[in-house]
């Protein structure tokens, strides 16, 4: 605990300072505070990845991760390092080693993961912003479950140097805020100008296949948001006739590649450290070990074809979809949590497969529990997506 900083909650924070690392006082964002997910290198501190046995073997990082450097140079103070689900391979936010961070918007319910500590720190008002990562939904889902802003950036657009990988084919830098303006400011800081593209849609898309396993209120909110976006842009809403069976194939292929790449990276360590991971997390890695070369090649072919289809679909469009299939489930219902994970992957895999930016937008629905809507655009339209999302919440 510090005199002026947030109280130390070990479920949220791994390390906390006042600040932990000070930003440049001459930077344009001086006075802002940030949390950093425990996958990013911070000089002088080891990367723990949410696994106690892993952390015990790591040496302090020599250099800051690229995204951390950018924040510090802009004047942002790093308040501390936040918890992640083990090796970032979960959407729940529950960690067998360190516990479950609180959900500020829905006490007693899961916070969402894997960027759980970062989302909770922002939602609780302990920091202004937080770095997370998004492979299969690890920013978009916690943002939805806690009613805050979040973004998954265009794949390979924001520098991932100094970031621990999960599945490089899908890994991206992301961040959380409580307001659209700051989400945009961090985007201007982290998204390189050379990779930016204007959002110039000729249509607004919704996909009935993405609504099939989604709670009705959330599906209705996504549809209303699409109509509102179309009105703002002077466009029409069109349905994307994605066959449900093709979506099933995409989700299965996404999972195959994610697990396979994760095992290639961490498999040796997991093999020599039996019992270090929660059973459900280890099972996801083991699925990657079990994947045959033929299965992986087939999955990569499916993803490549799907990526081409999405590229053509989205190049002059914006897709409006639920951020998650439901509001956050209760923390003590593991079967429901796993079921919801499967349904939610049907939403989150779209941006992952296409390498597309996706903004998780709060405040568009009604009801006692939080949920967000996602805006998905063409590669490089990250900043324009945030701007459009901000207009939607103001209208």
Automatic annotation (TrEMBL):
Could you tell me what this protein is called?
A: Amidase
Q: Which organism is it from?
A: Microlunatus endophyticus
- Signal sequence bounds: none
Q: Which domain of life is it from?
A: Bacteria
A Pfam family cross-referenced in the UniProt record is Amidase
Which residue range or ranges hold the Amidase domain?
A: 23-179
């Amino acid at each position: 605990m510090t005199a002026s900083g947030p109280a130390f909650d070990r479920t949220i924070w791994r390390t906390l300072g006042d600040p932990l690392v000070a930003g440049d006082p001459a930077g344009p964002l001086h006075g802002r505070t940030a949390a950093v997910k425990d996958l990013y290198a911070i000089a002088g501190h080891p990367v723990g990845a949410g696994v106690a046995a892993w952390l015990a073997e790591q040496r302090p990082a020599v250099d800051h991760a690229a995204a951390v450097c950018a924040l510090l140079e802009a004047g942002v103070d790093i308040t501390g390092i936040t918890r992640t689900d083990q090796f970032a391979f979960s959407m729940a936010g529950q960690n067998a080693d360190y516990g479950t961070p609180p959900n500020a918007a829905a006490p007693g319910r899961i916070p969402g993961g894997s960027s759980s500590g970062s989302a909770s720190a922002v939602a609780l008002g302990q920091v202004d912003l937080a770095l997370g990562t998004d492979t299969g939904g690890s920013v978009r889902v916690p943002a939805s479950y806690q009613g805050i802003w979040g973004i998954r950036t265009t794949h390979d657009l924001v520098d991932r140097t100094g970031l621990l990988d999960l599945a490089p084919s899908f890994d991206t830098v992301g961040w959380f805020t409580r307001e659209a303006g700051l989400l945009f400011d961090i985007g201007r800081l982290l998204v390189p100008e050379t990779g930016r593209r204007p959002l110039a849609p000729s249509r607004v898309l919704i996909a009935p296949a993405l609504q099939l396993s989604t709670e009705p209120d959330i599906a209705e909110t996504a549809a209303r948001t699409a109509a509102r976006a179309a009105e703002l842009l002077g466009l029409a809403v069109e349905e994307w006739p994605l066959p449900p069976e093709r979506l099933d194939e995409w989700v299965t292929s996404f999972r195959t590649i994610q697990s396979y790449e994760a095992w290639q990276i961490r498999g040796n360590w997991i093999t020599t450290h039996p019992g270090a991971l929660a059973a459900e997390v280890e099972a996801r890695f083991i699925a990657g070990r079990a994947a045959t070369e033929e299965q992986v090649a087939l999955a990569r072919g499916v993803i490549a074809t799907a990526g081409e289809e999405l590229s053509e679909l989205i190049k002059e469009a914006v897709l409006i979809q639920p951020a998650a299939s439901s509001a956050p489930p209760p923390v003590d219902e593991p079967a429901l949590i796993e079921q919801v994970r499967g349904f939610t992957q049907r939403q989150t895999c779209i941006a992952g497969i296409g390498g597309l930016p996706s903004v998780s937008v709060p405040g568009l629905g009604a009801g006692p529990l939080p949920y967000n809507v996602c805006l998905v655009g063409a590669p490089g339209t990250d900043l324009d997506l945030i701007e459009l999302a901000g207009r939607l919440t103001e209208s």
